[in-house]
């Protein structure tokens, strides 16, 4: 077997109030995020006792992957490391080296292309390996899974289940609203291998996934793809419309009910439970919209099995790709894919 471990790599989040600010500093170092935005986001974390749910969700995902590997006789140990908070990827890579791991596959908890969602993770691998030095394992990232049935099917079922809670008499004025993390327009325009076709790989993949989920879950309903959790200085343009503005606009055109499906994410982390369950839900209420947020894959068995399928696929010489979409796909990103944004001096 050419690989001897799997490493789960994620964003990371604080689990104690005193870790919130150091975590936010790690996330935003050199990114030009204004202090007012940071202070506001710190409050979102404090309102949950300073505990982001993301680490516990990754512990559960890791346990589910281990159980699935073992049930399917795939003898790979599973590790977990984060970009921004403990367990930090560098410490994990050091542990992997100490355990004698030579060559690992990485499953990143982000389905799509783009700098923040893909290339920055490759940079995280390189930084961690450089810090560990001689003998650090090689780390190969598994492919984008935006259109993998193990990711799309749980989203389809979640949208169906959400729709089932809404008033069927209002079906004709019900709308599906898919959301993903906003990114700067400039980052969207460089997402993918050059020359990047507009609107960039991140947006193109999200549109394709949204279309797949909508077509299967509710072909009779209209849908939109909108953006959430905008960061950065107000002067820098990010993908729009924001989900809150969009909900208000929908209410003005006679929509009565919305299912909000966070297809940009794999679990109910803080961006989901604050920005949607709290903020977007409040916007909907203010505008008199019936609102229901669809679930994320989390530890859905199909999503967990997908990780194994991606690993096995990667070990095949001529892999048969399990996928529902048609956008170009590759195992190894070209070196000039998703160019990093210009760095801003840290404040
Ligand atoms: C594309 C994308 C994903 C999806 C792909 C992936 O999952 O990787 C994602 C996920 C997440 N983003 C998260 C949290 C944050 N993101 C921030 C800031 C930023 N995100 C960006 C993009 C993305 N972010 C960008 C371009 C910035 C500006 C700074 C920069 O240029 O890098 C900030 C700073 C404060 C602020 O919001 O301004 C925080 C706290 C959490 C953890 C939630 C938890 O704790 O449960 C998760 C999963
Ligand atoms: Fe983010």
From TrEMBL:
<feature type="binding site">
    <location>
        <position position="121"/>
    </location>
    <ligand>
        <name>Fe-coproporphyrin III</name>
    </ligand>
</feature>
<keyword id="KW-0408">Iron</keyword>
<dbReference type="InterPro" id="IPR001015">
    <property type="entry name" value="Ferrochelatase"/>
</dbReference>
<keyword id="KW-0350">Heme biosynthesis</keyword>
<keyword id="KW-0479">Metal-binding</keyword>
<feature type="binding site">
    <location>
        <position position="181"/>
    </location>
    <ligand>
        <name>Fe(2+)</name>
    </ligand>
</feature>
<dbReference type="InterPro" id="IPR033644">
    <property type="entry name" value="Ferrochelatase_C"/>
</dbReference>
<keyword id="KW-0963">Cytoplasm</keyword>
<comment type="function">
    <text>Involved in coproporphyrin-dependent heme b biosynthesis. Catalyzes the insertion of ferrous iron into coproporphyrin III to form Fe-coproporphyrin III.</text>
</comment>
<dbReference type="Pfam" id="PF00762">
    <property type="entry name" value="Ferrochelatase"/>
</dbReference>
<feature type="binding site">
    <location>
        <position position="52"/>
    </location>
    <ligand>
        <name>Fe-coproporphyrin III</name>
    </ligand>
</feature>
<keyword id="KW-0627">Porphyrin biosynthesis</keyword>
<protein>
    <recommendedName>
        <fullName>Coproporphyrin III ferrochelatase</fullName>
        <ecNumber>4.99.1.9</ecNumber>
    </recommendedName>
</protein>
<keyword id="KW-0456">Lyase</keyword>
<comment type="similarity">
    <text>Belongs to the ferrochelatase family.</text>
</comment>
<dbReference type="InterPro" id="IPR033659">
    <property type="entry name" value="Ferrochelatase_N"/>
</dbReference>
<comment type="pathway">
    <text>Porphyrin-containing compound metabolism; protoheme biosynthesis.</text>
</comment>
<feature type="binding site">
    <location>
        <position position="271"/>
    </location>
    <ligand>
        <name>Fe(2+)</name>
    </ligand>
</feature>
